[in-house]
Design a protein that fits this description.
It is built from seven helices and two strands; from the N terminus they run H-E-H-H-H-H-H-H-E. It is mainly alpha-helical. The protein has a single domain, classed as Cytochrome c-like domain (Cytochrome Bc1 Complex, Chain D, domain 2), CATH 1.10.760. A two-stranded parallel sheet has the order 1-2. Helix 2 packs across helix 6 and helix 5 crosses helix 6. It is globular, with a radius of gyration of 19 Å.
Length: 143
C-alpha cells in the first residue's frame, strides 16, 4: 500500500513537471514560430481593409496621426511586448469610432495580417482571439 502511494505521489510530481515545462514552452513562443496561418492572414487583410486602412493606410504605414503597423516605427513601439498586448490594444480601442463593431475573431485575423505584413512566418495554427493566450507570444524584431 505504501509503495502504491509513493508511486502515485511520484507520478503526480512527474506530471506537474511536464505541465510546467509545457507552460514554459508556450511562454517561449515568439512571432518567429509560425503562430498564425496564411488563411488567417488573408481573412485579416480583408477585415483590415474595411476596419483599419482608412487611418493606418493600405500599406500599414500610418497617416501621421494613426501609428504605423509595419516597419521600424511599429517595431520601436512593440518590440519585446506580446502579441496579446497588441491584440488587446486593438480589441478595446479600434476602430476608435466603434471598437465593438469588429468582433474579436476578426481582430485576431487583423493581427495575423499585421504579422504577415511584418514578414513573420505563417504556420499551421491560428491566433486565438484570447488576450491571455496571445500574451504567451513575444514580439521580436529579430529571430
Amino acid at each position: 500500500m505504501k509503495l502504491r502511494i509513493a508511486f502515485g505521489a511520484l507520478a503526480l510530481i512527474w506530471l506537474a513537471g511536464l505541465s510546467h515545462n509545457a507552460a514554459r514552452a508556450e511562454q517561449n513562443k515568439t512571432v518567429w514560430d509560425g503562430v498564425f496561418s496564411t488563411a488567417q492572414a488573408e481573412r485579416g487583410a480583408a477585415a483590415y481593409k474595411t476596419a483599419c486602412s482608412e487611418c493606418h493606410g493600405g500599406d500599414l504605414m500610418g497617416d501621421g496621426f494613426a501609428p504605423a503597423l509595419s516597419g521600424a516605427e511599429f517595431m520601436g513601439n512593440w518590440n519585446d511586448l506580446s502579441v496579446g498586448d497588441l491584440f488587446e490594444r486593438i480589441r478595446v480601442s479600434m476602430p476608435p469610432s466603434s471598437p465593438s463593431g469588429t468582433p474579436p475573431a476578426q481582430k485576431a485575423d487583423i493581427v495575423a495580417h499585421i504579422m504577415h505584413m511584418n514578414k513573420w512566418p505563417a504556420g499551421e495554427g491560428e491566433l486565438e482571439p484570447k488576450t491571455d493566450v496571445l500574451k504567451l507570444i513575444k514580439i521580436e524584431q529579430k529571430k
